Amino acid sequence: MALLILVIATAVGLGTTWMTATRGTDLGTLTIGAWTAQPRIGTTEINPYARATVVRSGELPLGTGDGIAFIATTDDAKRLLDGRCDVTVSGITPPARFWTLTLYNAKGHLVANALQRYGFTSEEIVRNADGSFVIRLASRARSGNWLPTGGIERYQLMLRLYDTPVGIATRTQRDAPMPAITTAGCS
Amino acid sequence: MIRWLAALLAGLLLGGLVHLVSVLALPRIASQDAYSRLERITPVNAVKALPPADPNNAPIPLMDPAFATAICRYDLSSGPIKLAVPVSQAYTSVSFYTDGDVAYYAINDRSAGRKVIELDLMTEAQHAALPEDEEITAADRLIVDSPTSTGLIVLKALAADTGLMAQAQASLAAATCKVQTEPPQKPSATPRAGR
């Protein structure tokens, strides 16, 4: 009987820890469209679950005085980002001195491609006359701002805002207008 | 039947406890966290440039490939650290992490407001031991308190487009991070920040 209790306790306890440390939790997250950020991850007020995720992945979160990172793993229709599809990221970004958009595989590594293009910065992107932009993510070359996906099945996008008012006080799309992510078609 | 249910319930309760303890213990036992990874490839109390992030070779995951990055892994046990980072053309930032990967302070070129980001890093005990008149000069010396005696300083310079990467790397190459040679206990030995 005691053994059974211990087995259940170990399975439940370590199982939930593993789940929360790999997938993360919604604790203290800011979600705008398909984008999610954890404004307190770059402060000493980071919650224990976020800490567990950080040490497990091996990343260094952006310090709050530096900037904030938004992650997207799906498009606006909650469809997982697929490197074999044509995906567009379009619109405008929240106020920030600089931003970068980067494509990573599920493990957080850059995806190899012949152009050695892994993302765009706010300075190098080609914009429309009104300042908005369209980034095309696809495995084959596209006109305009093409970001190669390498044809991998799953990827994630990270939009980092540097020197920005967006942070702990940000709640909605109105404070932080994030670009839309749409899947156009799959090959 | 009731005994089995009681066992299940006890297991779940104990499981919750195991969960809490393991979540809190994870930062202590993790060996693949950023600090452990960088500890193997960086010297102590010196600036070391990281290779630019590329698909086959990234010291830590989720690095921003638009930045040149350098690390100063510090150990304050032999005294406070003096850090000087020249500001690059586009954007430069300095972020501080404990040896448990907690970001406790970050500053960028604009908030530093100078051509060179200069600051002193010390433990709270070392800060408290600073002589009184040292505090007066503290107005133009930025002092950062480290919650731990070891940790990481991450220096980053943005290459606004790919052609500017060499420039960003060069500006970080001029950064310095070293233990203060003059003991801070002697007020006369410290000039008024030279400014």
Explained architecture:
The complex is a heterodimer of chains A (187) and B (195). Chain A has a single domain (25-44, 63-186), classed as Domain of unknown function DUF1214, C-terminal domain (Jelly Rolls), CATH 2.60.120.600. Chain A is built from two helices and ten strands, in the order αββαββββββββ. Chain A has helices at 2-23, 48-57; strands at 30-32, 35-37, 67-72, 85-91, 98-105, 119-121, 133-138, 145-148, 155-162, 180-186. Chain A is globular and about 70 Å long. Chain B has 195 residues and is an alpha+beta fold. Chain B has two domains: 1-29; 34-189, Domain of unknown function DUF1254 (Immunoglobulin-like, Sandwich), CATH 2.60.40.1610. In chain B, 30% of the residues lie in helices and 29% in strands. Chain B contains six helices and nine strands, in the order H-H-E-E-E-E-E-H-E-H-H-E-E-H-E. In chain B, strand 4 (92-98) and strand 5 (103-108) form a beta hairpin. Chain B is globular. Chains A and B meet through helix 1, helix 2, strand 5 and strand 9 of A and helix 1, strand 4, strand 5 and strand 8 of B.
Jot down its keywords.
heterodimer, A: 187 residues, alpha+beta, Jelly Rolls, 4-stranded antiparallel β-sheet, globular, B: 195 residues, Immunoglobulin-like, 2 domains, 4-stranded mixed β-sheet, 9 strands, 29% strand
SSE diagram, text form:
The complex is a heterodimer of chains A (187) and B (195).
Chain A: H1 2-23, E1 30-32, E2 35-37, H2 48-57, E3 67-72, E4 85-91, E5 98-105, E6 119-121, E7 133-138, E8 145-148, E9 155-162, E10 180-186
Helix pairs in contact in A: 1-2
Chain B: H1 2-29, H2 34-39, E1 47-49, E2 67-75, E3 81-86, E4 92-98, E5 103-108, H3 109-112, E6 116-123, H4 124-128, H5 132-137, E7 142-146, E8 150-158, H6 165-173, E9 176-179
Compose a concise summary of this entry:
The complex is a heterodimer of chains A (187) and B (195). Chain A is an alpha+beta fold and 187 residues long.
Largest sheet of chain A: 4 strands, antiparallel
Helix content of chain B: 25-40%
In terms of quaternary structure, the protein is heterodimer
Mean pLDDT of chain B: 87
Please provide the count of β strands of chain B: 9
The CATH homologous superfamily of chain A is called: Domain of unknown function DUF1214, C-terminal domain
Rg over CA atoms of chain B: 21 Å
